[in-house]
Amino acid sequence: MFELRAMTEEEVEEFLSFLNDNKTEQQAKMLHPGKISDTEIHASICSDIHTTFIEKNRRYGNSFSEQFSEFGLLSLLIRLTDKYKRFKMLSENPEIDVLDEGIEDTLRDLANYTIMGLVELEKMKGGK
Fold it and tell me: HEC string of the chain?
């Protein structure tokens, strides 16, 4: 088991700076997937998901954790169900796939909520 701790503001800034410095290279690799491995693509997507998590928590606070503390797994189920319904709608109606709320964004949201749920379960086991 690992120990969870909050990142300091300095660590967050350093991490975001690192990601931004490497984003052009990552984006270039994404345009030419034959030149990189599935593992590298996976790492890039996970990095983007983590960056989104940090940025949204900075903007909005950790509302998911607060809601999970109050309602438990039900809160995760509701958020995953909302994202699943959006994914289903977009997959059945690709013409409404808008730039900021398309299938890729929805899949990233599903992944992020799943990870956030795992974080909460880990905290419940004592990995706080």
Answer: CCCCCCCCHHHHHHHHHHHHHHHHHHHHHHHCHHHCCHHHHHHHHHHHHHHHHHHHHHHHCCHHHHHHHHHCHHHHHHHHHHHHHHHHHHHHCHHHCCHHHCHHHHHHHHHHHHHHHHHHHHHHHHHC
